[in-house]
Amino acid sequence: EVQLVESGGGMVQPGGSLRLSCAVSGFPFTTYDLGWVRQAPGKGPEWVSLISIDGSSAYYIDAVTGGFTISRDNAKNTLYLQMNSLEPEDTAQYYCATAQLKYWGQGTQVTVSS
After folding, report:
1. pLDDT tens across 20-57, in order?
2. Which of 1, 12, 31, 56 has the most neighbouring CB atoms within 10 Å?
3. Average of pLDDT values for 98-108?
4. How do strand 10-12 and strand 108-112 relate by DSSP bridges?
5. Distance between alpha carbon 18 and the CA centroid of its chain, in Å?
6. CA 54 – CA 63 distance, rounded (Å)
7. Which string of DSSP letters, residue by residue, matches 50-61?
8. Do 97 and 105 meet the contact criterion of CB atoms below 8 Å apart?
């Protein structure tokens, strides 16, 4: 059974930090580029960041460049997203997914509010 289980979301004040994790099982983790997608209330989903199979290349949308860092631990089948300097505009449900959206998780909520 394919499972992508996100964790680490929550509520944080503007300027705060969170670290999301995505534990993967049921498919060969090391054969997929992976990433994080978010969907804010009333908006469509958007890719936030992507990382290559070996972790050597990463992509970020302009809105999070410099504040977010994606990483992966292929030994632990886990994907991460370190989010610093969070702003209210980052409030969304965050999902981990394979780059081709073949697999994705149930999401974790991130709320940035004072």
Report:
1. 999 999 999 999 999 999 999 999 999 999 999 999 99
2. 12
3. 94
4. parallel
5. 11
6. 24
7. EE-TTSS-EEE-
8. yes
